[in-house]
Design brief:
187 residues, DNA-binding transcription factor activity, Division inhibitor protein, Tetracycline Repressor, domain 2, AlkX_C, DNA-binding, HTH_TetR
């Protein structure tokens, strides 16, 4: 029961921290404690410090973002269709979720504890994409898996920062690049 209460409190704190970050409000531990109705010491015990809180928020947002992308990849039997669906899902999710957009683009409204680069998100996306490719194409050399996964992840982030077409166009283009790397012609 205590673990459940702790998990619920953690989720509530992260929800409020996300609201503050998206609104561009300063995410101070005293203000967060006040809004959640707990002591500052409770927050410090759970997250360590403001950087720990920011890291937990980034980890949660990244996980949710990548879960959606991975579900899109896994939801299509055809490799080209899977990549189109995944890239499209990433672009749409980022457009709908202001925290994800801010994390990926380094939006100034997000506290500096989130970082200005998207390196950790790209690395996590690359790992998930590589895992997908290993599952569906176990015959691929690891170098092709890594190249395709990293290229797709970086292209998607690039299009989030500086859009280069509609989500449908970008999804088709990224899928075509991935298929050229792993061997296969896009449809």
């Amino acid at each position: 029961m205590a673990r459940r209460a702790r998990d619920d409190l953690r989720a509530e704190v992260l929800d409020v921290a996300e609201q503050l970050a998206v609104a561009g409000d300063r995410m101070s531990m005293p203000e967060l404690a006040r809004r959640v109705g707990v002591s500052r010491q409770t927050l410090y015990s759970e997250f360590g410090d403001r950087d720990g809180l920011a890291a937990a928020l980034v980890l949660r947002a990244t996980g949710r973002f990548l879960d959606r992308i991975e579900a899109a990849l896994d939801g299509e039997p055809d490799l080209h269709a899977a990549w189109v669906a995944a890239v499209h899902a990433a672009l749409i999710e980022a457009a709908r979720n202001p925290l994800v957009t801010a994390l990926l683009t380094g939006d100034a409204a997000v506290p500096s504890a989130f970082g200005t680069g998207s390196g950790p998100i790209v690395a996590a996306a690359t790992e998930r994409a590589a895992g997908f490719l290993r599952r569906v194409r176990p015959d691929l050399p690891e170098s092709d898996v890594r190249l395709a996964a990293a290229t797709a992840s970086r292209l998607v982030v690039s299009h989030l920062v500086l859009p280069g077409g509609t989500p449908e166009q970008v999804a088709g283009d990224v899928a075509a690049v991935v298929l050229r790397i792993v061997g296969g012609a896009p449809r």
